[in-house]
Design a protein that fits this description.
The strands form 2 sheets. Strands 2-4-5-7-6 form a 5-stranded mixed beta sheet. It has a 3-stranded antiparallel beta sheet with strand order 1-3-8. It is an alpha+beta fold and about 240 residues long. A hairpin with a 5-residue loop joins strand 4 and strand 5. The chain contains 7 helices and 8 strands, in the order H-H-E-H-E-E-H-E-E-H-H-H-E-E-E. The structure holds adenosine-5'-diphosphate.
């Protein structure tokens, strides 16, 4: 049995290393290809028919670059422990306000409403870039994966138990039960075509899950079809600073 476990761990390590190495190796050639494509795109003498092809190639290379960056982020999260030295006190209220302001500029024709109920005194100790990425992912998802007219509520509060929770609640189309437990798996999307069209890599929730776990927290997903979804991340009281 001990041998089985060691073997499984070795295979897992090999898989993780392979993904990290492959992503790293692909990064440089892709940057070169994207650079040349941009040069071709800028050529004013480029025939229209070729222009369409070059535009499509550029948008696909941007997609590939996003996937590679997300895979590298996931590898880093998987292969390293959260270092206490890189943690600081995070002013979540102003972080959320920044994300919300930015998202509001991206909402076209008032298609979505974003409301916030934020406890301004509630802070946590953690890694700023990671927590920012997790919050950003969830808020961005609530806009990208819901239809026009959706209302999104962002709540940052302390529970009676002392844990600090971020709740992102939308009244969008919701997600059916059979998908919910798979959402944090790599590349799992409810609607592959739609996610790709919206620029998604299918890695966002896997990244959120890793970040939250590294901080000793928990990600909870509740959703019902036609009613909406609620994504909650809670951080343990030992990370809370008031
Ligand atoms: P991506 O957004 O890049 O597709 P994610 O891992 O962030 O990948 O999300 C996985 C899938 O979960 C999405 O493709 C989408 O189908 C579903 N999803 C995430 N957030 C929501 C939401 N607020 N409402 C409905 N579906 C959602």
């Amino acid at each position: 049995m001990a041998q089985d476990i060691t073997e499984r761990e070795n295979i897992l390590r090999m898989r993780k290393n392979f993904i990290a190495n492959a992503s790293h190796e692909l990064r440089t050639p892709l940057t070169v290809i994207a650079g040349y494509l941009e040069m071709i795109q800028a050529d004013e003498q480029l025939p229209e028919s070729l222009g369409i092809a070059v535009d499509a190639a550029i948008s696909q290379s941007i997609r590939m670059q996003r996937i590679i960056e997300d895979l590298l982020t996931l590898s880093r999260l998987e292969n390293s422990e959260l270092d206490d030295q890189s943690c600081s006190v995070i002013d979540i209220a102003s972080m959320l306000q920044g994300i919300i302001n930015n998202e509001k500029t991206l909402i076209i024709d008032n298609s979505h409403t974003l409301n916030a109920t934020i406890d301004h005194d509630l802070k946590i100790k953690g890694m700023q870039t990671e927590i920012n990425s997790a919050c950003n992912n969830l808020i961005h998802n609530a806009i990208r994966h819901t239809q026009q007219g959706t209302e999104i509520n962002v709540i940052w509060h302390m529970q009676p138990s002392g844990t600090a929770c971020l709740v992102i609640k939308d009244n969008g189309q919701g997600i059916s039960d059979e998908h919910i437990k798979h959402l944090t798996e790599r590349f799992y999307r409810v609607d592959k075509g739609r996610s790709r069209d919206k620029g998604g890599t299918g890695l966002g929730l896997a990244i959120v899950q890793h970040i939250v776990l590294r901080h000793g927290g928990k990600l909870d997903i509740q959703s019902s079809l036609d009613k909406g979804s609620t994504f909650t991340i809670c951080f343990p009281s030992k990370r809370v600073i008031i």
